[in-house]
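Teaching note: in complex prediction, the entire set of molecules is handled at once rather than each chain in isolation. The prompt given to students was simply: 'Predict the structure of this complex.' The entities are:
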Amino acid sequence: MRSPLRASLRDATTAPVPELAIPRGRRAVPTQTRMYTRRIPVAMYVAALLLLPTLMVAGFMSAGLWANAETSATAQAFTPPGETGAGAEAPAAPADVKGSMTVQQVVDAFPPITAAQILGKLGAQLNTPTSSQLKTLVEKGNSIDIPALRTWLQEQGAR
Amino acid sequence: MTMQEERTGSSPGAAADVRVRVPRRQKSWGSKVRWARHAVQGVLVAVVGWQAVGYVTSGGESAEAWCPLGGFEGAWTMLTTGRTVAHVHTSSLVLAGTVLVLALVGRGFFCGWLCPLGTLQEMVHKAGRAVTNRVPPLRRLRRRLERGAGLERWRRIDGVLRCGRWLVMAWAIIGAAVTGTMVFRVADPWIALLMVAQFEISLAFVVLVATIVLALFIQRPFCRYACPLGAVQSLAGKLSPIAVQRDASACLGCDLCNQACPMAIPVNNRTRVTDTSCNGCLECLAACPSQNGLAVTLAIPTLRARRSAPATEPDLQAATASEIMR
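The expected output is the structure of the full assembly:
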């Protein structure tokens, strides 16, 4: 849909005038920029932009900085030792508990607390294996999340 | 390439007596660009879908970890404490960095070519068009909405709603930095889509349903009004030297680029499409019938003003005529 401004302009310019007249208050702006512009072939542009993320992800993967599951080694160079996923050292404090840790790891780290308590808190069935990861239980249980579990663990430790 | 004599008088604002020879693109060129994009989108949807199904069925790798937004949300916590936020994996951080680099080069290329949620919205919109074309009342409703979209009032509403992206971005990133949790996760349609097999009614699920319903009538509604990842890319994309550029002397003023743009950017009013909402899908390029009307260009600032391409005298007249509206 054309705006009224455009319509009036079109009417003005379609009139049979010998020369192009620019209406008052308007200015002609040809394709002229303070830029040196160079065309890029579309195929090359697309190929380069598809290759860029592929290479970056492949590079990070090969450098061991890619982890998208708890089961992967979570070789997170950024994370301090003891905070990695399954099979890692037990958390030293409730604040160190992560979703990638198992119920057993938390039970081992905080002795008075039992697996049944944690499973109950997470809304999981009591016969759930203690090798289950907290994150999985949080997502399935729809009860509390990891920060809430940390808070609960802190409260239990304070008693 | 075929040379055809065009009467630029048909374009808005062009003089009726100016005739310009405009080289035309072959029609198959646009189809190739579209097919390439759809093929890439298809591959990405397949990969992420495979991850999501694998996660639901066997508890394997989380497809949630393929979302770059988590990286942006967890970046502050990572930098300040060295810990990752819950639900954020290092893959999210890697993807966030990749998307940032991609935006610095290709603006919203990720949104237009790679984002599976954007692909879903496009698919729904196309399905919606196919359905509404066959059901007269729905067809009338859609046409009424499309006509309304051109009205000034609706443009203003659209403009105001587009600010939502910035608000959601601030909420998601600042909220995550302050609380140390992914606050946007509760309303993230991407999460709801990944968890759809669990049939859990949540705010995220409501947002997903609303997105799908709106996508029947509006192209990419979540991208336009609420996507925080798109907003982050828009900011980074402002630094990109590459953009779609329009050569006014070769523009036919046919409006096909405007109609093709899923983000409703008035491409034929722009010299360079540097809008923050541009998702780099290149649909405008694919729709342009002129060989030189639109092109992807690398622009480097210079001190002196210069023309982007040589033009003949009639070209200059036509350019002046079609550019007056700016």
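Point out the following to students. The beta strands of chain B are 2-7, 19-24, 242-246, 272-273, 294-307. The mean pLDDT of chain B is 80.
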